[in-house]
Amino acid sequence: MNYPNELRYTKTHEWVRRDGNVIKVGITEYAQHEITDVVYVELPHVGNSIESGKPVCIVESVKAAFDIYAPMSGVIKAINTALESDPGLINRDPYGSAWLFELSPSNVEEWDSLMTSAQYEQVIKQGV
Amino acid sequence: MNVESHINLEQDSKLLFEKSKPGKSGTPLPKRKFQNRNFGKLIPQSLQRASGARLPQLTESELIRHFINLSRKNFSVDTHFYPLGSCTMKYNPKINEDIAGLEGFSWIHPYQDISEVQGMLRILHELSTALSEITGMAEVSLQPAAGAHGELTGMMITRAYHLSRGDTKRTRVLVPDSSHGTNPASAGQCGFEVVQIPSNARGRVDLIALEAALDDRAACLMLTNPNTLGLFEDDILQICEAVHRKGALLYYDGANLNALVGNLRPGDMGFDIIHLNLHKTFSTPHGCGGPGAGPVGVSKTLIPFLPVPSIVKKDGQYGFDYNRPASIGKVKSFYGNVGVLIRAYVYIRMLGLDGLKRVSHDAVVNANYLRKKLSTIYNVPYNDFCMHEFVISTSNFDSKGLHAGDFGKRLLDYGIHAPTVHFPLIVKEALMIEPTETESKEMLDRFVDVMRQIHREANESPDILKNAPYTTPISRPDEVLAARNPVLSFRDIER
Amino acid sequence: MENFPLTSEDQHQMLAEIGVQHFGEMLKCIPEKLRNPKINLPEALSELDAQKWFCELAGQNITLKQNLSFLGSGCYEHFIPSIVRHVVSRSEFYTAYTPYQPEASQGSLQMLFEYQSLMCELTGLEVSNGSHYDGATALAESLMMALNHTRRNNILIASSVHPEYRLVARTYLQGTHGVLEEVSFSPDFAFDLNDFKKKLSPEIAAVVIQSPNFFGLVEDLTEIEKLVHANGSLLIMMGHPLSFGFFKSPGEWHADIACGEGQPLGIVPGFGGPWLGYLVTTKALMRRIPGRLVGMTKDHEGRRAFCLTLQAREQHIRREKAPSNICSNQALCAMMACVYLATLGESGVKQIAELNLENANYLRDSLGAVPGIEVLTKGTIFNEFVVKFSKPIQKINGELRKRGMIGGLDLERFYPTLKNQTVFCATETKSKAEMDRFVSELKRISQ
Questions:
Q1: CB pairs < 8 Å spanning A and B
Q2: What interface predicted TM-score (ipTM) does this complex get?
């Protein structure tokens, strides 16, 4: 499986991309594989404040619904509405067009406590 | 979506709307008698419907053929062995239907004066008394319409009880990890936080973990006994003692009462609140998913909190008691799913105590017989004496790409309904099997033969299972398509 | 005791196979002191005796069929075509479980899909679930939907909504953040717009109104709807489902949720249940619907197929995070409604609605001419209305009973200020002669 180096990761299988002060969040290839065919994504509302470690939105397959947790605290700046009509994007392009939301972080230093690609890969190997 | 045109009538899946033709009607209605008075004209146009409700137009004979052919696409207890674990798919005696359908029960109005419905009230009163006896609870309310509704009622009673004592800290409900999904959902809907208690190596509640979770925030422990592995919680007396010592309540999920009925009572085990599923233990039909009934019984201390009204007998007359100031209130309009309650009472009266004992006795014999025979073919993770059901695991077929559900689907081809699949969650690739007392030894032997055959197929040509079933009106439906593009009515098809 | 297929020979063989001498060996894990409790139950009855005894009890009840009844108030005596009972008596339907195995349940699934389709047409809305326990619990679940959707905490409900529905809604809101406040009605029983405007605030998640309301009045929702939606709240409309055959449907009023009691759709009064809670809503709220939903899809060969869908939020998957704990529905009652509506068809449902409103108007006019009786529901009605007597309703009803008739509900039971007032209901089942007889008896009684 592919875990791009430039991204950071969480134990709950979110990836985080940092571009200056803008943070983009999605779910990892491992997560989309475990979820199987995504049939629906309940996105958060733009403007909502979110807290690191708390559930933000829901990704559903036929047989299960998965909470997506905030990797960092902040305010939702944008959501990926393309997922509303094509939730399968998450299965096809998890790191690219299937990002979930953008946030403006209240504490950029939280970035440093996220896992690197190598660390995340280790977690997956250990079967967490 | 296209409907194929040259198919067997029985397999026809055309909708009523697609068979409709203008100008037909299913029944001749009475003629209008006051047309000359023109009442309709007095009604402002702004309150009237702009155009008629677009309902299908068919004759009675067309309708009957449509619906009867639909019925033939179903598996049911009356046509198939239905070993669906935790659902107790027992036979539904026909007399129950006839009695519930009597005019004296079906054509009475809930707001008639109690003097006009004494026969009805007597049944409800006697049923409530009989259920108290059978469960060992002080009083039973017949109000809840289903098992989940009973659970919700039980959670509300739990809340009301603690609050009545000024104990506002108790915001947590404990459930074993083997519990039915409804338990945490009911607790959650009532505002409780849910704490999951792990099972021990013997498939029972881990007492040490339970003790650790029992603090002054614990409102209640919800327990199914026997649990969803079909195992009796043999530490029940210690569990009960621990729960009560910490000031919490013990809740009994009656889904599996069929294992105990007549021989063992939740009240004697120390449970404070119970719900029953009359559509399981007491033979009322499942009706494709309802209606059922979920009476709730409580210990003496909790009687004041039961929903209103209760049915009482005073001076030789039956009536309602609404005067319960501490009651959680009304949980359903009127008095519960009365038609279901009547059926359950007929069942109890026909069996008597000896009959009820025989029910649980034979249910346990049948389950253990199947468990023993199947354990020589399949993996039974907790292979202990079970009660009315047991769980096998197909996880040893992972390498062949097979899941428990594939075994269930293949059973359909042999004319047997699938067991409950992928539940309980603590067993990987679970098949939960409950034969009930309804089945004969011959049927069980046949089931074992079929399961042996499927086992062989799974080893030799797993694709047979992966693509099963082959003999049903449809093969596996595309559930991803259904969820991604929901088509939920005829309107959506037209769109 | 006959329906136990295991013979003693079978039992013997089976215990041997299990590897035990006695049945009791399998129960060793059960504490001894719990076993064999004393249980007091009446003697078992033979089938013959059971038939006789239960028939006798049934005979002790006074039925709507033998007596001329004008009782409504949430439970209605309507004509039920014979076909309804014949279809639901198919045991392939009534002895089947929830359709978890779609390949073995296409009958139940298609039937529920047809029910959903029919309810959408009748209510003019877009998505129906597979039914709820009853009208009251359908309302309670609708309120949960509204609270979750708007993330607001307050509900306004008209006092003219059926009292039992309001009571159940209150019970359900215990343990949630939801607060229920009532909007009063005017002397002619209409929704009180002034009171409403005072109470409408940005905290209101939904406004619940019933039309025809508990007093029989058909409400004009034009202004209410505008105010509700301008406030960002949801409009929940309840009502007698057959009234939508003639009167504006919830969809035409732009309601967000239609819910209520489906008993009038081919289901017997049965002393209050089992009935049918209907719940129909818009596409926007589709994913908030609790309970079962059937969808259409294709099987592997591309054939039309039906299956339960949008299940990921349900209790068996989401456990404590599920928005509702509901597992079952009232599928068999939904089937009754499905057969009933299909049998009536487009013209039939309109005609039934007209028969109801004509009968009720005729009865209202006739009673209005009787001295000592005052008609209080003066506006547009469907099949019931309020009248006031100069005597307690209990007395009136007692007199009617002596004459083999059943009167209306005493409103004082739920509205302490409404003294000597009752609701009379005249459905299509009443002939002109029966109504005339009722009026002439009341003439005598009311003096």
A1: 13
A2: 0.97
